[in-house]
Design a protein that fits this description.
The structure holds two protein chains of two kinds. Helices cover about 75% and strands about 5% of the residues of chain A. By secondary structure, chain A is mostly helical. The radius of gyration of chain A is 19 Å and the shape is elongated. Chain B has helices at about 5-35, 40-50, 55-65, 70-80, 85-90, 100-105, 110-115, 125-150, 160-175, 180-185, 195-210, 215-220. By secondary structure, chain B is mainly α. Classes of the chains: A mainly alpha, B mainly alpha. At the A-B interface, helix 1, helix 2, helix 3, strand 2 and helix 4 of A face helix 1, helix 2, helix 3, helix 4 and helix 5 of B.
Chain lengths: ~100, ~240
């Protein structure tokens, strides 16, 4: 539990600082363009990793299991512009169904 | 009614339709955080302080996989790092003292930032605050509801909840590589291609490192893919 609260407190303080740095410290001065560009690519970079690892990793092994089908179904839902909660439900339901069918 | 009061009303009104979606999203977070063993209060506090969907989900995902606190924190902060340039972009539009600026910054999320944009690089301070508060309240309330439901759900794997995480991250990634990114972040040239390249490279780094590094580390290392931002842009116009 302490580990969880450490994460909550530190990521909370860090996030507050990230948001406040511009308005409180930089007083309207812009970030250099290359810094701006690189920082904005952190999101896609991490999200790509999170999708891949969440789909294929099982501890330290890479496996293909029911999750692949669930995530594929999610991709279809996303392409159909479904809201995020529905995408999550679709992924979970499809994965659970595949597992029950023995996959 | 003064201009300021009008601004607050406009911001709150604009946020209401989004608030339902954000609230539902918050329920997902509460449920998944609970299923990852975070307890009842930690997710709620996180929604108030970290206040960023992708950052919160990433931290919970790393912790749920047995990653270290350091890896979870690093993932969360990297996913909230875009709020550094976003904060810089709203700074010239904020009047008021340090505490006022801090509060406005804290309620800044992608949606309230987009709602408050006036189109020429200016932002309405009142619209930002009102929409940010409405969305923050919805996010936190959703989290609280999800935490309650999450406890009664049972075995996450049997319910396919482990697939919910990558599905959710995909849902967060999709708009970042769609073309409308160009409209929201006008300062980035070649907007569509590079987020996709960063995502693919990040995925590759993550998968390659998973067999050889402790949980959480592959995700943090994948952040390095952002460095493709240093590559020169191929200009399509003379």
């Amino acid at each position: 539990m302490t580990e969880i609260w450490t994460v909550v407190v530190v990521s909370g303080i860090g996030s507050i600082a990230l948001k406040a740095a511009g308005p409180v410290l930089l007083g309207g001065r812009p970030l250099p363009e290359r810094v701006d560009t690189v920082v904005r690519l952190l999101g896609p970079a991490l999200l790509g990793a999170l999708v891949a690892i969440g789909t294929f990793a099982d501890g330290q092994d890479l496996v293909v299991d029911a999750r692949v089908v669930g995530v594929a179904a999610a991709a279809i839902a996303i392409a159909a512009r479904a809201p995020a909660l529905l995408v999550v439900i679709v992924a979970a339901a499809v994965t659970a169904a595949v597992r029950m069918a023995g996959g | 009614m003064s201009d300021e009061a009008r601004g607050y009303r406009a911001g709150a009104r604009a946020a209401v339709p989004l608030a339902l979606a954000v609230g539902a999203f918050g329920i997902s977070f509460g449920v998944l955080a609970r299923s990852a063993g975070m307890g009842a209060f930690a997710p709620i506090v996180m929604s108030i302080t970290t206040f960023g969907g992708s950052a919160q989900f990433a931290a919970v995902s790393v912790l749920g996989d047995g990653g270290s606190a350091a890896a979870a924190i690093a993932a969360a902060l990297m996913l909230n790092a875009r709020y550094l340039p976003i904060g810089v972009s709203i700074a010239p539009s904020l009047s008021g003292g340090t505490w006022s600026r801090l509060l406005h910054a804290q309620v800044t999320v992608d949606e309230s930032w987009a709602i408050a944009a006036e189109g020429d690089g200016r932002f309405s301070q009142q619209v930002l605050m009102a929409s940010g508060l409405v969305l923050g309240a919805a996010w936190t309330a959703g989290t609280a509801l999800g935490v309650v439901f999450g406890d009664v759900l049972g075995d996450p794997a049997q319910l396919g909840l482990d697939a919910a995480f990558p599905a959710l991250f995909l849902a967060l990634l999709a708009p970042q590589v769609r073309d409308h990114l160009r409209r929201v972040y006008p300062s980035i040239r070649d907007a569509g291609g590079r987020p996709l390249a960063a995502a693919l490279l990040g995925a590759g780094i993550g998968l390659v490192l998973t067999p050889v590094a402790p949980p959480g580390v592959p995700i943090v290392a994948a952040g390095l893919a952002c460095l493709i931002g240093l590559l020169p842009v191929r200009r399509t116009e003379p």
